[in-house]
Amino acid sequence: MLGAHRAACNTMDSYHLVVGLEIHAELKTRTKMFCGCKNDPDETRPNINICPVCMGHPGTLPVINRQAVRHVLRVGAALGGTLADYTEFDRKNYFYPDIPKGYQISQYQYPLVTGGSLAGVAITRVHLEEDTASSQHDKGAYSLVDFNRAGVPLMELVTEPVIHTPAQAGAFARELQLLLRYLGASDANMEKGEMRVEANISVAPQEGARGTKVEVKNLNSFRAVERAIAYEAKRQRELLEKGEAVVQETRGWDENRQKTFSQRKKEASHDYRYFPDPDLPKLKLSELREFTPEAVRASLPELPWEARARLAKRGLSEEVAGVLVREPRLKAFFDAVTREERKPARVKLAANYLTSDVVGLIGEGVGSWEELAARTPEEFRSLIALLDEGVLSSRGAKEVLPHWLREGGDPRGIAARLGVVQESDPAALKEVVAEVLQAHPDVVADIKAGNEKAVAFLVGQGMRRTKGSANPALLTRLLREALGLGAQE
Ligand code: ZN
Ligand code: MN
Known about the structure:
alpha+beta, binds zinc ion, 489 residues
């Protein structure tokens, strides 16, 4: 038993997980990568968006999609990578029914982007290629191929093998998805296959050594990415512990069984006989002003990590800022509400009510994003002012919010209609204080004898007398004053 325990500890210490990711993302463009066919991921009728070019008919010539090149360069600039000046496209030759030309146009020696980093992970390269058709093999005696996707612009990003935990891989993939959305480069929906993650996973007997690399495909969610890496780390470590070798191969992820399974032995890159595509021109990007590194950088919007830093500076917690950054519609509304706000307390209040209450109402289906978009920042700003001034309690605000989100309108009017405006008139509350003190002489004596905690009881009595409409902060202050106590810490 003791021996087994020691062996387990030893395992934890000495085996070293190394992961590199390859991520493909379908780019948002009007047309396909090399022809004028519509790039429409929502087209449900098969083989509608096809033409002789993307069907690989002889005698046709491809034309490079400028919008796709721009997307990849912008991603590269956001990652802090080096943008190519000279670039070219290559043919990656292999046979499969989903690749009508018998080769995929990709980039080999001269990718559009090299280097850069994201979420602390170094990036090897980002290049541009075309997607394959999609096949259906579950038809019994035959398979079906839909070429709508064939030739859709596809970005491929490759990281260095510098990821060491499943969580780090998941965080990287999530951050990339967010970046692609911020840039409008891709919707990057993993369930729809718009973003596809492959993980190269190896376990080395000790740090610095090289293990045998296994590639895992079909990872259709962030959770699958994390689970597949954890599964492979364990499987490979157990093989090594038994003195067996890890086979270099491609494995798939079985979502139902939560396991990887062997698919095929991996081809080496020379098997693809890469060579420059003779039908496409070489590009000298600096000849186009919009593709110079300076112009590309200048075209970038605020990036997710820049937004996080800006929001932290405004005093928001990492968690609250994270919610705003992950949901650009919410962030835009928050920015509109607080752009001119000087009071840090109000900035925080606005962020908290948006990220907890408003998000909650939308999540529950009480309100919708469309409704939030139809509301004015001014109205929300006055709701926050009412809270800050004590006219509304947090409970009152929670009652006002669903009405405001669904119908809009002045929050003060809504609060009055719902009867949740707080009594903040000192004269009225002083009367309440006098009544409370008179009704509870024993408690007053107790407080005067040093039991300050009993003030809370008197506040409770005051709230009861006003049926909950008193501003509790003001009521507390007036009670303490009447009792000759100092201001509360
Ligand atoms: Zn076409
Ligand atoms: Mn690829």
